[in-house]
Amino acid sequence: SLRCFSLHSLPDELVSLQNMCKTFAQNKLKPIAPRLDKEGIFPKEQINKLAKLGLMSICVPKKWGGSEYSALGLAIAVEEIAKGCSGTGATVSIHNCLYADLVSRCGTEKQKEQFLKPFTTTGNVGCFALSEADAGSDVSGITTTARLEENHYVLNGTKSWVTSGSIGKAAVIFATVDRQLKHKGIAAFLVPLPTPGLSWGKLEDKLGIRASPTCSFILENVRVPRENVLGEIGDGFKIAMVQLDKARIGIAAQAVGIGQAALDVAVQYATHRKTFGKPISEQQAVKLRLADMALRIESARLLVWRAAVLHDESKKCTKESSMAKWAASEAATFVTHAAIQILGGMGYVSDMPAERYYRDARITEIYGGITDIQKLVIGDIVIKEHGY
Ligand code: CAA
After folding, report:
1. CA 140 to ligand 1 center in whole angstroms
2. Which of 237, 242, 371, 372 for a ligand 1 pocket mutation test, highest count of atoms within 8 Å of Cβ?
3. What number is the ipTM of this complex?
4. For 358, which of 148, 251, 274, 388 is 20 to 30 Å away at the CA?
């Protein structure tokens, strides 16, 4: 299907996927998004439905109950879902990219039976526990330890900012077997939830994506069977990095969805609201602003799709996915800011969605690696590409 991909016409199967996600998001998510946001509700029922539609296992092989779409399919689906409800988009994107795809890529057959199959169509959500209070950007500095005791690893430490942490049914938890080894001492462990020794920190009270619950994991002698190590001891850092290449595509797609939703509401408002005897869309200041918004969204979407296509062609896409995330997240912040400006007072109150889009956009510049990290990643690769 990728061979017939062009920027003008998506393959039929992706158009169908896009339509299905659009219909679900506009009918089932958009109407409830304000309440989910205001009350901080996790949309369990809607996640179950999304799972039944194959959207919690977008790229997982059919063999494991997945939908087996490409990364481009993932980008298209996440954009549409985030357009309807960005908090739900966060759950879908992080579960797919940082849990299901990770287990699918690195798990053994036995691990997939336990940790992948029950997470494809049931609505069970998986988590990715990498960051710590003092090690978010500097992954090799994590301090959660894993000590081998006969056939178990014993995990101790605290993981922060775990998306879906409070509702997740399993997590990939990263810990170090020897801090001296820095990134070479990190391993990834599959842990069912709940599990003895693991408790949850308080639910974070977030600026945006409030339908997506975030908390920390406190690990006190959590015993993990040796057979639950993903890959080998020492592989954890690279497992996380390679997976983040994909997750950044998902987060960038979420950002494009938020931006598109903001542009849509801005155009709708601007063509109806009148000042000085005509719709404000006919005032040049507003029309130029709409054009600027549209340009940034379209450019970001192309970068997201390019990174996804490279990923689908099994080419390295580290630089491109960082570029997509940087561009799309800043586009989302710019566009949602501009949407509020166009809506004026109506942009500032929760009767209209623009203020929520603005709050939701900000996370895309933060999670999955803050923008400054994306710039460092891109800078390193650009210098290497020039032979230095
Ligand atoms: N693919 C494959 N290998 C990679 C890689 C990639 N994308 N990035 C690095 N590596 C390899 C390097 O080649 C190197 O390999 P060797 O040991 O063989 O030489 C090794 O990994 C170490 O690489 P670096 O020296 O570049 O590592 P570093 O310590 O300097 O860190 C970093 C690099 C880019 C800053 C990295 O730490 C990073 O990406 N930080 C941000 C982390 C992040 O995105 N966190 C978000 C967590 S998820 C989250 O937000 C929660 C959620 O639920 C959404």
Report:
1. 8
2. 237
3. 0.97
4. 274
- Kind of pairing, strands 126-129 and 170-176? parallel
Report pLDDT digits (tens) over 151-209.
999 999 999 999 999 999 999 999 999 999 999 999 999 999 999 999 999 999 999 99
Task: Judge if the beta carbon of residue 183 lies within 6 A of ligand 1.
Answer: yes
Instruction: Please tell me if the CB atom of residue 217 comes closer than 6 angstroms to any atom of ligand 1.
Output: no
**Which has the closest alpha carbon to 280: 290, 289, 270?**
270
Q: How far apart are CA 129 and CA 240, in angstroms?
A: 10
245: Cβ below 6 Å to ligand 1? yes
Is the pTM value of this prediction over 0.95?
yes
Q: How far apart are CA 188 and CA 183, in angstroms?
A: 12
Residues 12, 368: Cα–Cα separation, whole Å: 31
Structure tokens at 325: 């995330």
For the record, the structure tokens of 310 come out as 């490279």
Helix (H, G, I), strand (E, B) or coil at 182: helix
- Contact 271 CB / ligand 1 (< 6 Å): no
* Segment 11-23 mean pLDDT: 96
